[in-house]
């Protein structure tokens, strides 16, 4: 799944770099979904007490990625200041969640996958910010 | 992007059919994102006054698909009655949105793409319901 | 906070019963917020292992209430079949979450408050369904 | 409705200022709901073409407020850097949306109410940021 084809049909596209925009949206969608899944898998782990911080980071990252995906998808009447602040926040949430998931990556495969996805999303957010300038 | 790998790492997977489950989640994620994009593209069309119903259907479908994707992703302590009611609601929302988008498919490419995605998501929801029994 | 004043300013209000509509939206908003808080408080309880089902019910109920609040708030071009299915689903989610929270009401005050809110929201959803007919 | 009672029952409350925290959450919940209502009312106005930017600002503000309300509600294992970035983003989204709604306040009562709510939410976000330091 990629948001690319829908973005390409917008009647008044923004001047933002198309590849950076699409990649950021795609990764926010993937990261939001992955974090929902990781939080739920953590909830069923035998070492649940050690997973509390990871669950909290995943719930936050999922909510922030979902909101970011929606806002960045919208091309109509873009407000760059809000877009930039939100994408920066999303990068920070992905960093915090990825760091915590990484701590559990060796014993929980969902945390390993989630840490990887958080890194990809963080980088896609940073690449969009660099493209905005 | 597919939620499959994360679903496969859950420590206590449900007995629900794995393919139907993953397909339903993937399509809900794709349809929620597509509807956000279609509502926004409609908002920038010259024939905006004719797109009001389409925007409304897309906003609803996006919200319902996003909630459905999250709930169906969660494998821990599943409550089948709620899951079934929500997936049925999602199928109904996709049908209503797909029907409306189809009416604009010949003159707005985003509506054509969105109508197709709504059909796929509706079918994936129905297939999961059939698998649940 | 009540959505009433905003609902009253809609240029093309629906024929739905105004009091039932506003009450349903207000309770969905309150219940969505309460369930987010209860899930988070459960996550910090010493008897965390006993709260897993409660956390899962609260996360689902929060997502479903939030989506329902948005869809029911929208008065433009209402599609009654989707509205009805969603409000029924929301009532079911509130019942499931309220039942589980009630089991912990004697030892966790947030669960007692959340069970009460889930009951109010369930009743508000059922009252709106009765008003729709 | 206020999140206060649920926040007060958290077993491990944060050291954040309780009044500033509760006010920020309450206003984010109210603003998210109000913006959903305003976007929908705008969609039904006869001067729809003039309301496109307002609809877009309201949709963004609603998504960002909803995510912020959830993240700020969570008291377990708080990550201050993410919290601060998100609350700053929310204040920016409320400012942008309130400014646009204010432009239509004299001819659309929902825009007047929404502009007021956006100001209250912006101030509540800024007050929480000041309390965090």
Explained architecture:
- 4 copies of one chain form a homotetramer.
- Chain A is mainly alpha-helical and 133 residues long.
- Helix content of chain A is 76%, strand content 0%.
- The first copy, chain A, has 5 helices and no strands.
- In chain A, helix 2 (18-43) packs antiparallel against helix 3 and helix 4 (80-103) runs antiparallel to helix 5 (109-132).
- Chain A is elongated and about 50 Å long.
- Chain A starts with a helix and ends with a helix.
- The model of chain A has no long low-confidence stretch (mean pLDDT 98).
- Chain B binds chain D through residues 40, 43-44, 48-49, 52, 55-56, 59, and chain D through 40, 43-44, 48-49, 52, 55-56, 59.
What is the C-level CATH assignment of chain A? Answer: Mainly Alpha
First-residue to last-residue Cα separation of chain A: 28 Å
The greatest interface here is:
A-B, 38 and 38 residues
By CATH, the topology of chain A is Substrate Binding Domain Of Dnak, Chain:A, Domain 2
| Main β sheet profile of chain A | none
- What low-confidence regions of chain A span 5 or more consecutive residues with pLDDT below 50? none
**Oligomer class:** homotetramer
Q: Class by helix and strand content of chain A? A: mainly alpha
- The gross shape of chain A turns out to be elongated
Task: Determine the strand fraction of chain A and express it as a percent band.
Answer: under 5%
Helical content of chain A (DSSP H or I, runs of 4+): over 70%
Tally the helices of chain A: 5
CATH architecture of chain A: Up-down Bundle
Q: What is the N-to-C order of secondary-structure elements of chain A (H for helix, E for strand)?
A: HHHHH
Mean pLDDT of chain A: 98
Q: How many beta-strand elements of chain A?
A: 0
* Radius of gyration of chain A, taken over Cα atoms and rounded to an integer in Å: 15 Å
The tally of structural domains of chain A comes to 1
